[in-house]
Automatic annotation (TrEMBL), chain A:
Assigned GO CC terms: plasma membrane
Domain ABC transporter: 11-261, 281-521
Protein name listed in UniProt: ABC-type dipeptide transporter
A GO MF label: ATP binding
Organism: Pseudomonas alkylphenolica
NCBIfam families hit by this protein: PRK10419.1
TrEMBL record, chain B:
Name of the molecule in the record: ABC transporter permease
GO biological process: transmembrane transport
Spans traversing the lipid bilayer: 12-33, 102-126, 138-160, 180-200, 238-264, 284-309
Family: Belongs to the binding-protein-dependent transport system permease family.
Source organism, top-level taxon: Bacteria
TrEMBL record, chain C:
PANTHER family in the record: OLIGOPEPTIDE TRANSPORT SYSTEM PERMEASE PROTEIN APPC, PEPTIDE ABC TRANSPORTER PERMEASE PROTEIN
Listed GO CC annotations: plasma membrane
Transmembrane segments: 12-35, 78-102, 122-146, 198-219, 245-266
Originating organism: Pseudomonas alkylphenolica
Domain named ABC transmembrane type-1: residues: 73-266
Protein name (database record): ABC transporter permease
Main location: membrane
Length: 548, 319, 275
């Protein structure tokens, strides 16, 4: 390696400005950012969507995406200016001295080549390392990262390896040439919490062992707290606050940072349920499959009027299939769905208008849940006309009432189109559309997981207020333990198409835990820099953590 | 490998099935379409006797199924029937013309495929440069031109004004190879121009689509050289779309020859088809249509099989 | 942004294309006013040269070239437009329904289209025309039917991307009928690619009919039509006279223009995708 000056920072970014081109104009993405990173230091970059953290991460490699441009400032890596540097010079740095770990390993590995070929590519082509040696080192790294079958896994193609393992292989690939700096761009965001632990542990091991400096980008403060020595909070392309991890967690200075921290404290009041009452919704021993693939086994649940039942599980647990079963999109192969004691036809096409009206649905991604070619008044007005026969002024009046209920000004929003609204506002419109049908049950399918934390909290509070006002029941589907803790009256835990645990919120969240529930809850990162250490120490036998 | 074989067998079976269905359609179209073909064909000369005779010759007096059975049986034995216009066996009429048409299409493919792929890759690499813009605008214009327009412009320039090449490609039997080549040059050029433009546009689109994928960005961030990104990271994944582009255009080529043959009076299958349609020589039309359709299906099936075989997810299944 | 503003910001090629399209439509509409002679009127010797009496000379039968070019705009454009509209009405509607209904409706329609598309279009057209004869009506119907298969494929594919979105599922779960789903939920969101496809299809049909006419199997004499005008007068080219190329140029000009406009529409509706 080159001569190293210990006194000088490894990465020095000064007043960096980057613009992106969309909707026929240039918009600022980074509005003058300063950043200093010492050798061996791990810096966490956190912020909500649009904060510019990925743009900053890529810029530290001298890279801007197509459709973006650097308009000012400097990026110095080990004394070398990267802004305006020749492509050939940058190419010599990347992979060798600065490496990158992307959010989705599945998309970032080339499907046409074996993992090992992609792993050693930079080392062999640019690093002048002998191929056999590079491969031997790769196998050693896989062993260190506790990948199953370290000798063989490199011979596989990306689609033959699970997401969590692939993310670890990508981390190994980043370290292959012992770079001075690794940029981790949301490396665990696409993973389930139980898988995330493994990857987090792997990343930390690697960074510690090889002494690389790192930029760790995430929207999840609890995750960053485990990894970073120091944290920078970004918002709208600007720095909000910067401090070392512990003081940032214990004593945030800025209002914005404080509000980010406070999100997790929201709790609804538990609602008492009269046990004698007939349940509003009951699913009895339902099984279902997509084609030949069974997705639900013997699923039963009950939900009472005015209550919230949270269904929690990881991807593939069958929680969304349960929602589709209840709405009649996925007819069960066995078992039945009862509404107010009466069996519902399995297929929604055979349900009456009245039966359809009483169960409404809110979706995960509000952008695709609203027809982009309709105005807000059409979107909310349609169920009013369709179910309740309201037309003209009566319909508009009711739409205005509903808009006020979701805290949007009717005078402003009535005639707008969805694309003029923010993500949170769109989700509120979806809530209003569901309420327009005057349902007794609303199925909320991951309704906050596509939203930023602060916006998500607002939506949860709104849903809670509506429940108190109207006594509507929620079936709340989520993968997020914190959300369940915030809003559930009853909890159902699902794994691989089965119900593995259920009970009231208090019962579920107090020890002793059932095996899977315990694993799930303990895997949820906490706002404590020592959480990961404690967890790894407590899980003495790592073999139980291997994703199956 | 199981799922791969299953897919391939499925695709081949589908090809055979469509060939059969097409044969049925081509054959039965005559009987199923409205109006009496025999009467229409005879026009003014139709008397009850001549109509009955023609119906018998076309086989319209026997049930459709029997008729199809007989036709297919003869077909399988290489007997394509007899032309109504001159009573000669169709196989004889077609044989030499078929070779002419295929050699014309093959020559055009030989010229156009490499040129189009190269231009497409270059355009994708230097997208939005002046080179790309120029190429794109000319390609867009070229695909919009009717073939006969391109053909006559080439005749006007190369045959009439410059007097370098003959304007008519009526090959005499026993012509030397040089002569054949000289006479085929303009038709080949016409076909190539139209197909290159189309193929280049599609190749460019397929590659640009691919260059936007995260694994290409990852390769850039790994410091891989631009040439290696194209050849090692992009092209292996672009194989399937490019194979499809090529097959689609080759299939087009086989059909596109019809107009070009007429312009240049080139003695191929296309010209025979057009003449026979004008004369309503239905057995010849059927035979020619079947040959064109079979070629078309063969090309499409080959493309599908190749693109299935080039998909790593299918070549290396999980487990 | 208003349509007019977008138009002002369009690239030169699109503006050129739009101008040509408007010009053609005007010529087609006012053909009898613009043409100095009748469509089939024999006004002089065959192959008269260009001059003040006959602007572009006369054709093989002694009819005025310029007048026939003008009438040709009306005939060729009209027939191509009618055919494209028919193809869209049939193929577009079936494609949308197949995408929304799914199941056996989709399977059935898709397999029929697969089989029809296994035969090259020109060959299929020649086969059918040889049986039913080449009248204008049969021409329009046959080409419309064949093109409907292509339109079906595209509209089904476009509709599929819309149908999988949650707002369509929401409408289904509300209990909306097929007509509402097609007209209110899917069609408005599939409009941009379908409009572009309409342009491309129109070009294709236009070229197709011209090619058939050029082969003598399309629009029949004495109707003025650009494809057959090239065919009738092609012999002049060997004498270095470019008059027969004029109708071919007319065909090329309109298809290029439509393509330029479609390219712009597609680019504009795809947003920032290609930067």
């Amino acid at each position: 390696m080159t001569q190293v000056n210990i006194q000088k920072p490894l990465l020095e970014i000064r007043d960096l400005r980057i613009e992106g081109h969309y909707e026929d104009a240039w918009h600022p993405l980074l509005k003058g950012i300063d950043l200093t990173l010492q050798r061996g230091e791990v810096l966490g970059l956190i912020g909500e969507s649009g904060a510019g953290k990925s743009t900053l991460g890529l810029a530290s490699m001298g890279y801007v995406r197509d459709g973006c441009r650097i308009t000012g400032g400097s990026v110095r890596f080990d004394g070398m200016e990267l802004v305006g540097a020749r492509a050939e010079a940058l190419r010599k740095l990347r992979g060798l001295r600065i490496a990158y770990v992307a959010q989705s390993a599945a998309a970032s590995f080339n499907p046409a080549h074996r993992l090992i070929d992609q792993h050693v590519e930079t080392a062999v082509k640019n690093g002048g390392i002998d191929r056999a040696q590079a491969e031997a080192e790769a196998v050693e790294l896989y062993r260190v990262l506790r990948l199953p079958n370290p000798e063989q896994i490199g011979q596989r193609y990306p689609h033959q390896v699970s997401g969590g393992q692939l993310q670890r292989v990508m981390t190994a690939m980043a370290i292959a040439c012992h770079p001075d700096l690794i940029v981790f761009d949301e490396p665990t965001t696409a993973l389930d919490v139980t898988t995330q632990i493994e990857v987090l542990a792997a990343i930390r091991d690697v960074v510690k062992t090889y002494g690389s400096a790192a930029l760790y980008i995430s929207h999840d403060l609890a995750v960053v707290a485990q990894m970073a020595d120091r944290i920078m909070v970004l918002r709208h392309g600007k720095l909000v606050e910067e401090a070392d991890t512990r003081s940032m967690l214990n004593a945030p200075q800025q209002e914005y940072t404080k509000s980010l921290w406070a999100v997790r404290s929201f709790r609804t009041d538990p609602k008492i349920c009269a046990a004698q009452q007939r349940p509003l919704l009951e699913v009895r021993q339902a099984c279902a499959s997509y084609g030949q693939q069974p997705v639900l086994h013997d699923v039963s649940l009950t939900l009472h009027r005015g209550q919230t039942l949270a269904v929690i599980g990881e991807s593939g647990s069958g929680k969304s299939s349960t929602a589709r079963l209840i709405t009649g999109l996925l007819p069960p192969t066995a078992g039945q769905v009862l509404y107010d004691g009466e069996a519902l036809p399995a297929d929604f096409r055979r349900r009456s208008k009245e039966q359809l009206r009483r169960i409404q649905m809110i979706y995960q991604i509000p952008d695709t849940a609203l027809n982009p070619r309709q105005r807000i008044v059409d979107i909310i007005g349609r169920p009013l006309t369709f179910y309740l026969g309201l037309k003209g002024q009566a319909m508009r009046k009711r739409v205005a009432e509903l808009l006020e209920m979701i805290e949007l000004d009717p005078a402003v929003y009535m005639e707008r189109q969805p694309r003029e609204l923010s993500g949170g506002q769109k989700q509120r419109i979806c809530i209003a559309r569901a309420l327009a049908a005057e349902p007794q049950l609303i199925i909320c399918d991951e309704v906050t997981s596509a939203l930023d934390q602060l916006v998500a909290e607002g939506v949860l509070k709104l849903l809670n207020r509506i429940q108190q006002q109207l006594g509507v029941a929620y079936l709340f589907i989520t993968h997020d333990v914190a959300t369940v803790r915030a809003i559930a009256d009853q909890v159902l835990v699902m794994q691989r198409g089965r119900v593995v645990d259920h009970g009231s919120r208090d019962a579920i969240f107090s020890p002793p835990y059932r095996d899977y529930t315990g694993l799930l809850f303990s895997s949820e990162p906490e706002m404590d820099p020592d959480w990961l250490n404690r967890l790894l120490a407590s899980r003495a036998a790592p073999s139980t953590l291997q994703p199956v | 490998m199981n799922s791969l074989y299953k897919l391939l067998v499925q695709r081949l079976a589908l090809g055979l099935l469509s060939l059969f269905a097409v044969a049925v359609i081509i054959f039965l179209a005559v009987g199923m379409l409205p109006g009496d073909v025999a009467e229409a064909m005879l026009g003014q000369a139709a008397t009850p006797e001549t109509v009955a005779a023609l119906r018998a010759q076309l086989g319209l007096d026997v049930p459709a199924l029997t008729r199809f059975g007989q036709w297919a049986w003869h077909l399988l034995h290489g007997d394509l029937g007899v032309s109504l216009a001159n009573q000669r066996p169709i196989a004889e009429l077609i044989a030499s013309r078929l070779a002419n048409t295929f050699s014309l299409a093959a020559l055009a493919a030989l010229v156009s495929v490499p040129v189009a792929l190269l231009l497409g890759i270059l355009a994708a690499l230097y997208r939005n440069s002046w080179f790309d813009r120029l190429l794109n605008t000319s390609a867009l214009s070229a695909v919009s031109f009717p073939e006969f327009f391109v053909a006559y412009i080439l005749i006007l320039v190369f045959a009439v004004k410059l007097n370098w090449l003959p304007s008519i490609s009526n090959l005499a039997p026993g012509a030397s190879f040089g002569e054949v080549l000289e006479r085929s040059l303009l038709p080949v050029l016409t076909l190539s121009l139209v197909v290159v433009a189309q193929m280049m546009r599609m190749t460019r689109a397929a590659l640009i689509n691919l260059l936007a994928s995260p694994y290409i960005e990852m390769a850039r961030l790994k410091g891989i050289s631009p040439a290696r990104i194209i050849f090692r990271h992009a092209l292996p994944n672009a194989l399937a779309p490019i194979i499809n582009v090529v097959a689609l255009n080759l299939a087009y080529l086989v059909v596109g020859v019809v107009v070009v043959e007429v312009v240049f009076v080139y003695p191929g299958l296309g010209q025979l088809l057009v003449d026979s349609v004008a004369k309503r020589d239905i057995p010849v039309v059927q035979a020619c249509s079947l040959i064109f359709a079979a070629t078309y299906i063969l090309l499409n099936t080959t493309a599908d099989v190749l693109s299935i075989a080039s998909n790593p997810r299918l070549m290396h299944p999980k487990g | 942004m208003s349509l007019f503003k977008q138009l002002l910001r369009a690239p030169l090629s699109a503006k050129f294309g739009l101008a040509v399209i408007v010009l053609y439509v005007l010529v087609a509409l006012f053909a009898p006013v613009l043409a100095p002679y009748g469509e089939t009127q024999v006004v002089g010797e065959g192959f008269a040269p260009w001059g003040s009496e006959f602007l572009l000379g006369t054709d093989n039968l002694g009819r005025d070239m310029f007048s026939r070019l003008v009438y040709g705009a009306r005939n060729t454009l009209g027939i191509a437009f009618l055919t494209t509209v028919l193809a869209f009405a049939l193929g577009g509607f079936c494609g949308l329904v197949a995408a929304i209904k799914g199941g056996w409706v989709d399977q059935g329609l898709s397999r029929v289209v697969d089989i029809l598309m296994a035969i090259p279009q020109l060959i299929f057209a020649l086969l059918i025309l040889s049986v039913v004869g080449t009248t204008a009506t049969s021409l329009v119907l046959v080409i419309a039917l064949l093109d409907a298969t292509r339109v079906f494929r595209l509209s089904r594919a476009v509709a599929m991307t819309v149908v999988v979105q949650d707002f369509v599922e929401a409408a289904r779960l509300r209990g909306e009928g097929l007509w509402w789903l097609v007209s209110r939920e899917v069609l408005p969101n599939a409009a941009a690619p379908l409009i572009a496809e309409f342009g491309l299809r129109f070009c294709f049909v236009f070229l197709f009919i011209s090619a058939l006419s050029f082969l003598g199997l399309g629009i029949q004499p004495p109707t003025a039509d650009w494809g057959s005008m090239v065919r009738d007068n092609a012999v002049l080219i060997t004498f270095g006279d470019i008059s027969p190329l004029l109708p071919a140029l007319a065909v090329a000009l309109i298809t290029v223009s439509v393509n330029f406009v479609v390219d712009w529409v597609l680019h504009a509706s795809s947003g920032l995708k290609e930067c």
